[in-house]
Design brief:
By secondary structure, the chain is mainly alpha-helical. It has 11 helices and no strands.
Length: about 220
């Protein structure tokens, strides 16, 4: 419907009930994840059940609900397939112990460097590592045991190593194709258009990260 039709649409009791179901779903999501350790399987079931409840309240038949679900899922199918491909890359590199070798040799290159240069090198390593491991928790599990030990050997506060990880994991998700392909697939946005916009911004972010991490070593950030 048009914007004018949407504005003129009356807010009925049916709509209020649908919003109530949505709020209950979010409450159940928070409670389930915090109290029972729900993850993707349980959350998927929760949203599918909520979808059917909302559809029935809206007056759709079960067949119509399924048809609209398939129509909506088609828009993100490409992104879902990319996620599978990226995940397979991560599994191969992790199970083959390739990731550990990459982190080890990268960290060795920083041994003996001045604190500021070593900290800046940590940021670069974490940014590069995020290409291979888009998962934040996965990257932390692989890199932080080595980076924290490197910080100790350089008499550097471990919080600086954590900050370097946060810089490398957070912002580069907007640049590396292992993450961007999924995002662009879901948005239906051509990757070349995204990179035309994002590349200058990402380079400015990296420059700022390097400046801030050097400042962190100067003030012994903790």
């Amino acid at each position: 419907m048009s914007e004018e039709e949407l504005d003129a649409l009356p807010f009925t009791g049916k709509h209020q009930l649908i919003i109530l179901v949505f709020v209950i779903t979010i409450i159940m999501l928070v409670y389930g994840t915090t109290q029972f350790g729900w993850y993707l399987t349980e959350l998927s079931a929760l949203f599918i059940i909520s979808m059917f409840i909302v559809g029935l309240i809206a007056g759709y038949s079960l067949s119509e609900i399924c048809s609209k679900f398939v129509e909506a899922a088609a828009d993100i199918l490409f992104g879902a397939m990319v996620i599978g491909v990226v995940r397979s890359l991560s599994i191969v590199m992790t199970e083959g112990n390739i990731i550990d070798s990459i982190v080890y040799y990268m960290s060795n290159a920083l041994q003996g460097a001045p604190k500021g240069i070593a900290a800046a090198g940590m940021v670069v390593v974490q940014n590069l590592l995020n290409f291979f491991i888009p998962s934040g928790s996965g990257q932390a599990a692989v890199s932080m045991p080595i980076m924290s030990s490197l910080a100790d050997s350089l008499d550097m506060n471990r919080q600086i190593a954590v900050l370097a990880y946060q810089f490398g994991d957070g912002f580069s998700n907007m640049f590396w194709p292992t993450a961007v392909a999924t995002e662009c697939g879901i948005m239906g946005l051509p990757m070349q258009k995204w990179y035309k916009f994002m590349t200058p911004l990402f380079l400015m972010m990296v420059a700022l990260e390097l400046v801030l991490i050097v400042v962190a070593t100067m003030i012994n950030y903790s």
